[in-house]
Amino acid sequence: MKINTAEFIISNSEVDKCPKEFLPEYAFIGRSNVGKSSLINMLTNHKKLAKTSGRPGKTQLINHFKINNNWFLVDLPGYGYAKVSKRTKSVFQQFITDYFEKREQLVSAFVLIDIRHEAQDIDIEFMSYLGESEIPFCIIFTKADKISKVKIDSHVAAYKKKMLANNWEEMPMHFVTSATEGTGKDTLLEFIDEVNQDVFKQDSEF
Ligand code: GTP
Ligand code: MG
């Protein structure tokens, strides 16, 4: 799929204030600093559509970006950022869970995982929450440019092993990406295109 237009629509902390248009949307979630905003910029060929930073905690709101006038990419705040105060943390978590539980247009979440690191409990727990809430999701491994190509497969295999050990029946669908090198861009956009076509065909709400 070719991205012709990508526009920022709105930022907010309330799911009720998200765009009313009933278009399929895909939400990027994961630990702070994992590369959610960078990946949105990579997919849309923009350097600064979504705000990025070397410091964790940059994205603090629900951000809607309308793509090709036809679907939304949603950039969310990260979880697991220790420096956010407890009170702010619970507010974050509340509006993030509100978003996942109420947003009917959400077709799939993408849970981003830094490919360099061993599987972390917080990510596995978040995926369990999505699973229990029956929210479809895929895994996106990020920062693939930071490890050698030969290590990519073994890191993915180790991740799969950890998920199976945590009572998952299978590894969810997953993608390997690098925002700096453009790795995974075409595969991910093709996947979204196919899902969009399916939902437009099969789901009368869209
Ligand atoms: P929060 O908004 O704080 O939750 O972070 P985020 O997940 O949106 O991360 P962001 O996109 O802001 O990126 C965090 C840092 O990682 C920045 O310094 C990026 O330049 C860097 N980064 C993101 N993706 C990649 C990647 O694929 N490769 C490399 N080398 N660096 C990356
Ligand atoms: Mg961000």
Topology (elements, then pairings):
Elements (H helix, E strand, L loop, with lengths): L5 E7 L12 E6 L5 H9 L17 E6 L3 E5 L10 H17 L3 E9 L6 H12 L4 E6 L6 H17 L8 E3 L8 H18 L4
Parallel strand pairs: 2-4, 2-5, 5-6, 6-7
Antiparallel strand pairs: 1-3, 3-4
The structure holds guanosine-5'-triphosphate and magnesium ion (MG).
Explain what this protein looks like in three dimensions:
This protein has 206 residues and is α/β, with parallel strands linked by helices. It has one domain (6-198): Rossmann fold. The chain is 35% helix and 20% strand. Strand 3 and strand 4 (71-75) form a beta hairpin. The site of magnesium ion (MG) has 5 residues, from helix 1.
Q: How would you characterize the largest beta sheet?
A: 7 strands, mixed
Number of domains: 1
Helix and strand element order: EEHEEHEHEHEH
CATH topology type: Rossmann fold
Number of strands: 7
Rg from C-alpha positions? 16 Å
Give the DSSP E fraction (strand runs of 2 or more residues).
Answer: 15-25%
Number of helices: 5
- Which consecutive residue ranges, at least 5 long each, have pLDDT under 50? none
- Level-2 CATH architecture: 3-Layer(aba) Sandwich
Average residue pLDDT? 93
The CA-CA distance between the termini, in Å, is 19 Å
Query: What strand line-up does the widest sheet have?
Result: 1-3-4-2-5-6-7
Unique bound compounds:
guanosine-5'-triphosphate, magnesium ion
Give the fraction of residues assigned to helices. 25-40%
CATH top level assignment: Alpha Beta
Q: Which class do the helix and strand fractions yield?
A: alpha/beta
